[in-house]
């Protein structure tokens, strides 16, 4: 199966074997890698990177990350905005709502259940199963 990365260190092994040994909360924290503020995409995030309004209105939909090292951004929703976390394949996500940016691409505000503090932010829908949330943000 897939391996998961921590910045600068590749830890290999099957997720299945890890799951037998770790509690669900620890698994959730391993699936999300926090990045220092210097590890952002681009040196100038630009004026479009701010905390867009979002609400948890998609209460029934969850999904998963479908690629490795998927960026999660608390500011967005653009690929040039700073990256706060990197998500790994199979990470369970709660979908809250989606927005269109001016490219136009759709981005979903997600949260990662079981992380403390709660990891949440914008993810491009192309990196999500079922193309992200079914509910538009108000």
Q: Explain this structure to me?
A:
- This protein has 138 residues and is mainly β.
- It is 10% helix and 29% strand.
- It has 2 helices and 9 strands.
- It has helices spanning 15-21, 24-30; strands spanning 4-6, 9-11, 32-34, 62-64, 70-72, 85-87, 92-100, 106-112, 119-124.
- A hairpin with a 6-residue loop joins strand 8 (106-112) and strand 9 (119-124).
- The longest helix is centred in the N-terminal third of the chain and has 7 residues, at 15-21.
- It is globular.
- It starts with a strand and ends in a 14-residue tail after the last strand.
- Residues 1-30 and 36-47 have low confidence and may be disordered.
Topology:
Layout: E1 4-6, E2 9-11, H1 15-21, H2 24-30, E3 32-34, E4 62-64, E5 70-72, E6 85-87, E7 92-100, E8 106-112, E9 119-124
Antiparallel strand pairs: 1-2, 3-6, 4-7, 5-6, 7-8, 8-9
Task: Summarize it.
The chain has 138 residues and is mainly β. The chain has two helices and nine strands.
Which outline best applies? globular
Average pLDDT score: 74
Helix content: 10-25%
Low-confidence stretches: 1-30, 36-47
From the alpha-carbon coordinates, what is the Rg to the nearest angstrom? 15 Å
Largest sheet: 4 strands, antiparallel
Quaternary structure state of the chains depicted: single chain
Provide a count of the helices: 2
Intertermini distance: 39 Å
Q: Which band does the percent of strand residues land in?
A: 25-35%
Q: Order of strands in the sheet with the most strands?
A: 4-7-8-9
What features would you highlight for this structure?
138 residues, four-stranded antiparallel sheet, mainly beta, 2 helices
